Amino acid sequence: MKNQAYNPYLPSYEYIPDGEPYVFGDRLYVFGSHDRFNGKLFCMNDYVCWSAPVDDLSDWRYEGVIYRKKQDPRNKMGLQQMFAPDVARGADGRYYLYYTVAFSSVMSVAVCDTPAGQYQFYGYVSRPDGELLWNKSGDPMLFDPGIFVDDDGCVYLYSGFAPKRSVPFPLTGWRRRTNKGGYVIRLERDMVTVIGEPKLLFPTAGEAEGTGFEGHEFFEASSMRKIGLTYYFIYSSVNGHELCYATSNSPMGDFTYGGTLVSNGDLFLNGAVSDRDALNYIGNNHGSLVQVKEQWYVFYHRQTNRHHYSRQGLAEKITIREDGSIPQAELTSCGLNDGPLQGKGEYSSHIACHLMSGQGAGRYGVYFGGVSFRTHPYFTQSGRDREDKPDQYIANMRDGAVAGYKYFWIEDVKEIAVCVRGSASGIMNVSNALGEAPFAQIQIEPSKDFTYYRTTQDRTMKDRTTSMSGSKSGKQALYFCFKGSGKLDFRSFVLG
User: Fold this and answer.
1) Measured between alpha carbons, how far is residue 187 from residues 90, 192, 195, 383 in Å?
2) What is the pLDDT of residue 164?
3) Fold of the domain spanning 20-318
4) What's the CA gap between 21 and 172, in Å, rounded?
5) Rounded CA separation 214/29 (Å)
6) What pLDDT does 371 receive?
7) What is the pLDDT of residues 60-69, one digit of tens each?
8) Residue 282 and residue 364 in contact, taking contact as beta carbons nearer than 8 Å
9) What pLDDT score was predicted for residue 86?
10) How far is CA 390 from the centre of its chain?
């Protein structure tokens, strides 16, 4: 039986957001920043890489540390974070990794002979005379590189940072940066020398009237892909939780807004528009597109542990229509899997695609959760940050809290069990849709240790869900909603 792929697609102890996926040879590689579990800042760890064979996207391999913070000459002590990177294969066949150290607004480059080998520092993006690009007071911010090498060998670097409230940043001593939007920067084939002047492509909020980007203006997370003859620019909008795309016939300009690719709260689907409508806890987002064989995917990330600083990579299938448009992807638990998950066996609770309290979800701030999220459920793990022993689970489920999973192929499931612990006393209701009447109820009692509680159905889930959905399809969602007193930690569920 072929292994299944889940969301998050990496082991649950791994916190790699800002994923840039690429197929090199017969493997899919993901490059991203590297958060620390329960970290106090973004991107506290060194860069690592994971890859999977294109024939089995469940078989991820840890490639190890590919670049350390202290390798950058401007960060010899390794005390500053390396933010979201990007990678491209140059005309010389080598692989170039682009990044910024914290908010320095200096674009650094490292190089390696293989996609996931040991990268070595190469240089800084500079003008022909050697002066660092945008190194003067008032210059725009260099941030979140998107590096792209076109079919003709021309090199383009996309960058920019434009929060909704534009505030100059005191970044490097007396220098102060401005936040005007997203830029394209031509580079020589040496991958570091600037050609001409950078060009503003995507103005920020308040300056985008009449462009078609209103309400989804550029914020950060530049990434470029070429599909056929069309250039797709992927970015995070001022809404923060969504990845959007824009298209053009040229890598240098005249982009047209396309739409939302994915939201880490499923916002903008089914009429949901405000933070209070989110079906999952929302925060910043970053990712891009990749084609594996005949299927296209969007990679993005989620927040865990009630804050921004422990983010995890996710992926969803997307469809590119004949006219080039891409409908928004919905959040799922199956992600890279070839269809729904099997409706039998034990599943970790952390693969939930929807999570919320009885009062809904919300937007995480930059700092630790605080009072507003004290009564909310969240993804977490035991112990400290590590590179082994996955044990992530959902903590702090209270009355009305919901964990949702999409999708399973259900056949002849006659029993459901949940593995929980805590002070909770009540009922775990199981349904096929949010707010729908339950088809199963499991009695929960207080327990200090993780304990299995189960129920046996009078008829199979297949019969029950068919009658509820009006369809004979076995593809079903599962929603677990706790009703009762106290609180519980939810480790796993069993379809038996």
Assistant:
1) 11, 6, 5, 45
2) 79
3) Tachylectin-2; Chain A (2.115.10)
4) 32
5) 34
6) 53
7) 999 999 999 9
8) yes
9) 98
10) 19
Q: What does the pLDDT read at residue 175?
A: 56
Q: Residue 220 in contact with residue 151, Cβ under 8 Å?
A: no
Boundaries of every domain in the chain: 20-318, 343-495
Active site residues: 18, 220
Question: pTM for the full model?
Answer: 0.95
Q: Which portions of the chain are predicted below pLDDT 70?
A: 1-2, 165-175, 366-371, 456-473
CATH superfamily for 343-495 is Galactose-binding domain-like (2.60.120.260)
Confidence (pLDDT) at 370: 52
